[in-house]
Specification:
With about 150 residues, the chain is mainly α. It is built from eight helices and no strands.
Length: about 150
């Protein structure tokens, strides 16, 4: 993992934690972002990417949830809050961060689910985000399948 991708990985870790906090507390996203930015231990993350992902995910949560609803096996409200945060983040990246290959998005979500999710949560994240990617990144996936 190069330095840039490591900083982005750290940013995604922080987004999952911030999203979890947002989902549980309902605090304003700017307040949560400020708390994370103020923590010196987070200096080893790409804080601009963190802010982009956090604001984007929260700002598009209705759109994101509508993409997730048809591909989850239960209502999103019943999905573990950590896994819900990971799914929302992954769906945001698939929809809005087209410079990040879909395989990277899914791989990052799987890594995060292994760290923060339930025992087999990474399998669930992989399955759900694969379905989302097949819809949102169909052209990219078709091109990859041809090679």
């Amino acid at each position: 993992m190069n330095a840039s991708s490591h900083l982005r990985h750290r940013a995604r870790r922080l987004v999952v934690q911030a999203m979890y906090q947002w989902q549980i507390t309902g605090l304003d996203v700017a307040e949560i972002e400020g708390q994370f930015r103020a923590d010196a231990e987070h200096a080893n993350a790409d804080l601009d990417y963190f802010a982009q992902l956090l604001r984007g995910t929260v700002g598009h949560v209705v759109e994101i949830d509508s993409e997730l609803a048809p591909v989850t096996d239960r209502p999103l409200a019943e999905v573990d809050p950590v896994e819900r945060a990971i799914l929302r983040l992954g769906t945001y990246e698939l929809a809005h961060c087209l410079d990040v290959p879909y395989r990277v998005v899914i791989n990052e979500a799987v890594k995060l689910a292994k760290v923060f999710g339930a025992e087999d949560g990474y399998k669930y994240a992989n399955s759900v985000l694969d379905k989302v990617a097949r819809k949102l990144r169909a052209i990219e996936i078709a091109a990859a399948d041809r090679h």
